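FIELD: query
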Amino acid sequence: METALIALIAVLVLLVLVLVVRRPPPVVPAAPSLDFEPFLAPIREQLQAVVGQVGAVKANAEGQFGALGQQLRTISEQNAKLESQGAQLGEATTRISTALQGTAVAGNWGEMTLIRTVELAGLTQHVSFVEQETIGTADGWGRPDVIVYLPQGRNVIVDAKAPLIDFTGRADAAATQAAALKVHVNDLASRNYSAYLDGAVDFVILFVPTEGILATTLGHDPSLSEYAVSRRVLLATPMTLLAMLRAVEYGWQQVATAENVRQIALDAAELHDRLATFVDHFAKVGSGLQTAIAAYNSAVGAMQTRVRPQAVRMRDHGLRVGKELGEPQPIEAEPRVLEWR
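FIELD: result
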């Protein structure tokens, strides 16, 4: 655009010069020379305006190019930061994946999730469940992660297993998890804890610490759940195990309520027996009152018929006394009989 304006200016200047050069000389030699300034002034003003507009356009273009360059530099810096963050995220993912591939770390994670789920269900350690209890088996000793106590002296064994988690996105990750979980099912079934723990139910719960792992595994091998049941192993996630344990906790509440009712009945029977004994004592008090009233009335009769007349005769014979003898009255009321029906 700037080049076109410069070319236009050059053409206009050239045109003006041609007109000036080709103008014929004046016919009358004595005529005065022409002044071209009035003709060239408007053209000069137009050229100056065009030059000013070209400068403004050029300055505006330079500003826009500068802003665009700054935006490009900002985008480049942001891309560099995103690339760096992506690299850091990849390294962190690799570290997490590597850590969870370790048997000890994965096992601790599964056990902690299991204990947290049991506590969320409202069960109390050493009261309604116990962890890491040693059980003697045919192969030696076994230590299931949790034994949950059920009412009526029954027990259920829960063992936590955390299959290896693949964060690399490989196509065979689900197959690897399914194979690992099937190995855990066979291993747990072979231990046969139920045969060596008194009151244990005839199945064992295999706890998987996340719903996603079990969903991915069953999505690849839907028959794994039925296979586990055939080996007397139930697959459970935190949500399903929580529902089971809440039912257990409700059962313990019912047992506690029944025990309270039984204790109330025993206390009521004992209270009845104690009230009967108290009534017997109360009857003896009434009988004692009757005896006391009879003795009192006998004493009043003796006072009125034998003691008081003799004292009156002595007074009549001139015995000086300071106080007159009173006359006690007999008690006619009878103690009320207590009736207990």
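FIELD: remark
The chain is about 65% helix and 10% strand.
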